[in-house]
Structures are given as C-alpha cells and as structure tokens.
Specification:
Length: about 240
C-alpha cells in the first residue's frame, strides 16, 4: 500500500517568497490498484510522482510504502524496494544498447533474447529492429519513451509510476500500450499509478485522482469521478455551455 501523508513541496519564488507546488496532499492507494492521476497542466502531478520516487524532496509530510516510511530514502533505495518511475521525457543513454538497459532493469544478465523481445513487443516495438540499437539521439522521442516503458516492465516493480506514457506515441503503438496496461492490471502483480490525460487510459482505471493547484481536488472510483470531470470541463467553459 502507498500512503502519502500531508505532503507539501515549496520552492522560493522570484520575489523571495514561498511558492507551494504541493500543498498538504494526502492519498492512500491500495495494492494492485490502477490509479490514473489527471488534471490541468501545471497542477502538480509530475511533482507528486517525483516525490514518490525520491526525485523531489518534500518540504514536509511523509510517504509510506508497504507500511515503511520511505520519505528519507534515496532513489536507489526506493528502486530496491520495488518503486519505479517512467519520466515524462525519458533520458537517453549514449553508449548503452536497448538490450543493456533491459538487462540492467531486470537485474539479470541471463535475460534470454526471447524475453527481451517480449518486453519490446509489449510496447509496440519490433524487437529485432531495436534490441541492438544504442539509446542515443538517433532514436525518436516516441521510441525512447517506449523503450523506457519496456525497461519498467522488465524491472517487475511492485509500484509502477508512468508519467504521460501516451506522449509522443503513435496511435498503433498506443493501442498496444493500453493493452499492456490492461494485462498488467489483470495480472495483479503491481500497483499502477499513471499520470495521463488520455480517455482510453483513464477508462482502464479503478480510481481517478484529480490534482489541480497543488492539491487533490477529487479522488474516487472512475465511475464516479470521470463523469464529474467531463461535466466540469463543459460547465467551466462558457462557449461549451452555450453550444
Ligand atoms: N523546482 C521548481 N521551481 C519552480 N516551479 C516549479 C518547480 N517544480 C515545479 N514547478 C512548477 O510547479 C507546477 C507544477 O508542475 P508539475 O510538473 O508537477 O505539473 P504537472 O501537473 O505535471 O503538469 P503537466 O500536465 O503540464 O505535465 C508548475 O507550474 C511548475 O512550473
């Protein structure tokens, strides 16, 4: 279980004051749930995900994973405890091949060609075309994104956090990816937290968390929250109301 208790993250603004990026956020996610975190641009979703992974150090509050307070742990220690995070814009690794990344992620040097190819196929990549490619600037943004998602699958983490996995991914690969998310959820081996604005991903969720202005404005079952989001989107726009 993931428990976030009264988490805040403040930075100094230009005038020397404090700017609250996350403000007293509390959230509990039960094991094996598929939770979609959504909300307007700049609402604080990525910051929340980075705080869970240890990439952002909260100003106050705590994060518990399976009952253990991990707030003070490093990224590496959190990864060892089964938490993994896929960046909105993944880094490239010059000098490393796709095969190397998959082996590093899985922690197994004996990963078979078959297994490596399966991870790539699950994100819509033709394995033989990519397995020996270097993860450098020669790969497109969408390719790097999918390779990173494949490494998260290879890691077999207990908590998988994906930051806008749909970004830059073509329609065909996206269909493959949503099917992979569905399978992961059905397997019930991991808790999935996916930051997304995509209706097809939101549709897979058990629960939706709406983050806006650094706070959680809504959280509940998809069936309850999604119609509210759609209604608010329309009612918040005078043009749409009149139409
Ligand atoms: N270190 C920082 N210093 C100043 N502002 C920051 C810092 N980190 C984040 N922000 C600001 O906090 C807000 C929340 O950022 P965040 O990336 O978490 O939003 P988001 O909900 O993921 O947005 P998007 O949907 O556009 O990806 C943004 O306005 C961002 O500019």
């Amino acid at each position: 279980m993931l428990e976030i208790r009264h988490l805040s993250y403040q930075v100094s603004d230009e005038s020397g004051g404090e700017l609250g990026i996350l403000n007293d956020v509390s959230l509990t996610i039960a094991d094996h749930k598929f939770v979609v975190v959504t909300g307007p641009n700049g609402g604080g979703k990525t910051t929340l995900a980075k705080a869970i992974m240890g990439l952002v150090k909260p100003t106050s509050g705590s994060i518990l994973w399976n009952g253990e307070d991990i707030t003070g742990l490093s990224i590496t220690d959190r990864a060892r405890k089964g938490i993994s995070y896929g960046f909105q814009q993944p880094p490239r690794f010059k000098g490393l091949r796709v095969r190397d990344l998959l082996e590093l992620a899985s922690g197994r040097q004996d990963l078979s060609h078959e297994e490596e190819c399966q991870y790539l196929t699950r994100v819509g990549l033709c394995a033989n075309d990519y397995i020996d490619r270097e993860v450098d600037a020669s790969l497109s943004g969408g390719e790097v994104k999918r390779i990173e998602i494949a490494t998260i699958l290879a890691r077999s983490a207990g908590l998988m956090i994906f930051d806008e996995p749909e970004a830059g991914i073509d329609l065909w690969s996206f269909s493959r990816l949503t099917e992979t998310f569905r399978q992961l959820h059905d397997e019930k081996s991991a808790t999935l937290v996916v930051i997304s604005h995509q209706e097809r991903i939101i549709d897979l969720a058990d629960e939706i968390v709406m983050v806006s202005g650094g706070v959680i404005t809504q959280h509940g079952p998809k069936e309850e929250i999604f119609p509210q989001i759609l209604a608010n989107t329309v009612s918040g726009c005078s043009y749409m109301k009149e139409a």
